[in-house]
Amino acid sequence: MFSPHLLAIWQLGSGVMLWWAAAAALPLLIHLWTRRQFRETKWAAMTFLLAAMQKHSRRIRLEQWLLLALRVAIPLVFALALANPQQVGSAIWNTLTGQGRTDRGHCLLVIDGSFSMDFRAAGVSRFDEARRLASEMIDQNPQGTGYSLLLMGQPTQTIIGDPAFEDNDVKQELAGLSLTHGGASLLSTLTAIEQALAEAEKKYGVLPQRRVVFFTDLGKTTWGEVSSPECLQRFAALQQKGISCSLVDVGQAGADNSAITELVSESPWITIQDPTTFRVDLSNERAAGASSSAPQRMIVALYVDGQRVAEQRVDLPAGGRASVPFVQRVETAGEHVIEAVLLDDQLPVDNHRWRWINVRRALSVLCIEGRHGEADHLLLALRPQQNEAARIEVRRATESELIEGDLSKYDIVALCNVGRFSQNEGQALRQYVERGGNLLVLLGDQVQPASYNEILAAAKPLLPAKIGELQRGNDLRIDPLQYRHPLVAAFRGHQRSGLLTTPVWTFHQLQPLPGANAALALSTGDPVLLERSFGRGRCLLLGIASSPLSLDRTVDPPRPWSTLSTWPSFPPLIQEAAAFVAASKDRDRTAEVGQPIEGEFAGTLPRPIVILRKPNYGATAGSEDRLAVTDEQGRTRWVVPGQTRSGKYEIHSPAEGEPLLASFVVNPDTRESNLERVALEQLPETLRATAATESTATAGQFGPPKTWFRELLLGVFGLLLTESIVAWHLGRGVR
């Protein structure tokens, strides 16, 4: 039987000429008209003739039908010749036997999806231009060409893997492509190309014509590795297999771009009490060869939860940087999204930057005292002004609060010279920190190192160090370790703050665990302030007593371990520690493209499913995904994989009304803001030649199909000659 692909191997150069085939009806009409002109009349003399002719009637009828068929075929074949039929593929037999696809071409369309492709010249983005040119290439290729479609990104997305032989299907996939808001990896793309070619070879064998066509702006962040040995080796391997590579350049030389590179809050935590300064950092990437070096007057707007609240103008130097401060007060507690927008720029993606913030009524701290009065100096350092409008709320409690209370209500839990822990108390502290809480452990003379090490520093340690024996010395001093840690960076240049002159006589020796970072040490080299991440939270451990109640009774008279708690440097040190952990807690809802993000909220859902609403982009409405969540002891935890587009994302309950449960923001990777291009000289020879000389129409076009015009025209002459001979033969027989 005929393969369903038989018709797909033909295309017509001028299909409208097939209308001439209607002339084939003329011989039939003449034949029918001639039959109507005769009227049958019975005649006695003809009876003998009819009897004689009946012996030859079948032969005569066949001769007449043959002559009629020849006369009908002449205009049909002539019309087909005028339509210029073209054969796609060279083995009709393979097509008839179901193997016709093995003679088709395979074209891999590779579209650059990095966000520099959103740069717009005359209102048209490079990405849209690439899709248009790819669609145009499909129209100009022979019918029956197979296409694979890849979108360059991190990682590269395979849109069509197995070759698709229906042009309209490929065009629909092209039209549905979405630009990513990150960069692209050339090595990842080459891996995807090799996989697509290998899969096509398994399914269809080695197709006789295979070509890879890149549609790109040749951005340096994507193509900078093209001259690396690995990339050159891979391009050479493709060429050795007979796979040609070509490139369609949709970029523009000398394109400038301005971008928002950062949006940060100057306050480590934000409360409804105080105005907050949001700093917007701008940069201008001046292309090589740009003519103007004058500063650009830019407009930067600030939005809070989608409402425009402020606007400033700034002169951005060509190829330079600028910062714009916005002082804004957020008057309601809870989750909010701050957005900075740069107006009037040709690359829209990096004109936006988001920051998720958690606005508190105040920073909440719970102090667990090992004995009464241990937290007095800590409370005074955290809240030096005892008024209702304080930015930090402090509550003191006993050890029973670790089991009986709800630790999740507090931003920081401080353990002040607590002697020992039970297994349940240790488990409660682990869960609290793992879910995003922050633990401040202040040691003292009541601490039992064995209990701490067993409960909090054993398998999967919560503490940043194991606690060793007590150490004593005479007039030891604190070493800030060159102020490398952000917790003590504020003391740089303030030697008179008292931090360096704090006398220390007794301390717990700390043995750092993997992942621990030292912020302070003693003049002996022993670390005394360590921090370490645990889950989504953080733990700080101070080996010096934070209260004068801890005494060294081995000397007479007993003396305090140190004067740290009464020294002028103690309040700013504790404030910086609180700021450090508070800032760490709020960073987990602001991510970059490609980074996974997670969170949790109180309560459970009837079904472990939530709705993830993605942001709108331009006129394109955001889509929705169903997201599985997990129940962890009365709290719902969600994890969102890395996203490809920037903006505000919302997590809603599937219940009636779809209430908002949580939100987070994703920012673009601003490395793509630099529109610098690679030089053509850096490209492999095959790409360099096509990028420099080949037109778009020929970059991915296969060899011209075989045309049958001459053969069909010869057939017309043959039919005319045959018709004349047959008519002459029949006419001679009649005479």
TrEMBL record:
Gene3D superfamilies the UniProt entry points to: 3.40.50.880, Immunoglobulins, von Willebrand factor, type A domain
InterPro entries recorded: Aerotolerance_reg_N, Class_I_gatase-like, Double_TM_dom, Ig-like_fold, VWF_A, vWFA_dom_sf
Q: Which chain regions cross the lipid bilayer?
A: 12-33, 65-83
Q: Which SUPFAM superfamilies match?
A: Class I glutamine amidotransferase-like, vWA-like
Keywords in alphabetical order, please: Membrane, Transmembrane, Transmembrane helix
Write down the superkingdom of origin: Bacteria
**Pfam families xrefs:** BatA, VWA_2
Query: What name does this protein carry?
Result: VWFA domain-containing protein
Q: In what residue span(s) does the VWFA domain sit? A: 104-294
Q: Does the keyword Membrane apply?
A: yes
Q: Which organism is it from?
A: Anatilimnocola aggregata
